[in-house]
Amino acid sequence: MAAKKMGRPPSVNPKSEQLSVKMDKTTETILDNYCLKHNVKRPAAVREAISRLNEEETRYFWSPEWRQLLEENETTLLKGTEDLQQTLSLLLSLIRSMKTKTGSEDE
Hints:
This protein has 4 helices and no strands. By secondary structure, the chain is an all-alpha fold. It comes from Paenibacillus phytohabitans.
């Protein structure tokens, strides 16, 4: 029988690329706090953050389907916004009127 090789087994996804990054103290603190909270090392946290950048591109809200829905409903959404603004204006007007009638403090 052939002798087995000693050491670690080969990685399925080897980490052959190296990245050196300079950061300010605030960014370093954010990274270190994340690592402590999630019990991960810095390289793993950076790889996770980079993966999330890719996920952001594929999220539903940025998908062509979502953009199409927004375009199709733009008029309805704008009308709803106008209605909400009118309702808020009326509500503020009523509050001012109540303050005047009750002698409450001015704004």
